[in-house]
Amino acid sequence: MNTDGEMDTVAARFSAEHSEEVVAASFANTSDPRLHRILTSLVGHLHAFVKDVELTDEEWAAAIRFLTETGAMCSPVRQEFILLSDVLGVSMLVETLNHDTDGGTESTVEGPFHVVDSPPRELGADIALDGKGEPCLVTGAVTGTDGSPVPGATVDVWQANADGFYDVQQPELQPERNLRGLFTTDDEGRFRFRTIVPRYYPIPTDGPVGRLLEATGRHPNRPAHIHFDVRAGNYRSVTTHLFVAGTPYIDSDAVFGVKDSLVRDFPVVDDPERAAAAELPNPFRTVHFDVVLRENPT
Ligand SMILES: [Fe+2]
């Protein structure tokens, strides 16, 4: 760099051999050190990748088309870029690197379907607004890592229906905010709600990400799960899933989101008295999922 802020002519001349250095040098005046580090590293990896695979003009143009179509597919209720990140394992990698477990409930991907605010509901409410599917009682408690209950925690849940679709995917078929709810834990940190057992489902395959999966012989399915996002003051929030034990695709999740600690049995309860107490038809399924939050660092 000379005194006029221009790059030295010789050092700045672009060549295949020195392309990373030349482009990285162009970021020398970036005032934010974190942005500088990210951009120079990104350019380094991108250039190394292009050289490694000897990318052709046609392949570069195809990549631009692919990314353009990925962006064009996005809408308020469809996030194709998150899907792309998910199927490439980047979402899970970011999640895993940023969220140590350390005694708390393990986290997993948020996924692309938390696209509307969940409606606040009373404890025990039924989030299956259309009543379709196998009835299920979900109970649990939110505690700190020392086991102390966390009253007043918000427990945000959302899930697919018995056919494997979220409400936003079927606005003509499902009631608005079906199978979504925002609950607040009671004085003992407990929560409970009624729902139906979710089904495994394919991530949307009618866009560029679907074509990517098809071209690589991968199936698009996710094992059955209920999404949880749990928050409370003075604790680190956790975004996670509760997986249904025995669901198809538990060992080959298209987005790599399964962690063994998040899998639970959903046993059948055949007991008219318990069904009446739960305000569910008999028999019904049930699951218990305790959520452990880590305290915020002081
Ligand atoms: Fe999901």
UniProtKB/TrEMBL annotation:
<keyword id="KW-0223">Dioxygenase</keyword>
<dbReference type="InterPro" id="IPR000627">
    <property type="entry name" value="Intradiol_dOase_C"/>
</dbReference>
<keyword id="KW-0479">Metal-binding</keyword>
<dbReference type="Pfam" id="PF04444">
    <property type="entry name" value="Dioxygenase_N"/>
</dbReference>
<dbReference type="InterPro" id="IPR015889">
    <property type="entry name" value="Intradiol_dOase_core"/>
</dbReference>
<dbReference type="InterPro" id="IPR050770">
    <property type="entry name" value="Intradiol_RC_Dioxygenase"/>
</dbReference>
<dbReference type="GO" id="GO:0008199">
    <property type="term" value="F:ferric iron binding"/>
</dbReference>
<dbReference type="GO" id="GO:0009712">
    <property type="term" value="P:catechol-containing compound metabolic process"/>
</dbReference>
<keyword id="KW-0560">Oxidoreductase</keyword>
<keyword id="KW-0408">Iron</keyword>
<comment type="similarity">
    <text>Belongs to the intradiol ring-cleavage dioxygenase family.</text>
</comment>
<dbReference type="InterPro" id="IPR039390">
    <property type="entry name" value="1_2-HQD/HQD"/>
</dbReference>
<protein>
    <submittedName>
        <fullName>Intradiol ring-cleavage dioxygenase</fullName>
    </submittedName>
</protein>
<feature type="domain" description="Intradiol ring-cleavage dioxygenases">
    <location>
        <begin position="138"/>
        <end position="166"/>
    </location>
</feature>
<dbReference type="GO" id="GO:0018576">
    <property type="term" value="F:catechol 1,2-dioxygenase activity"/>
</dbReference>
<dbReference type="InterPro" id="IPR007535">
    <property type="entry name" value="Catechol_dOase_N"/>
</dbReference>
<dbReference type="Pfam" id="PF00775">
    <property type="entry name" value="Dioxygenase_C"/>
</dbReference>
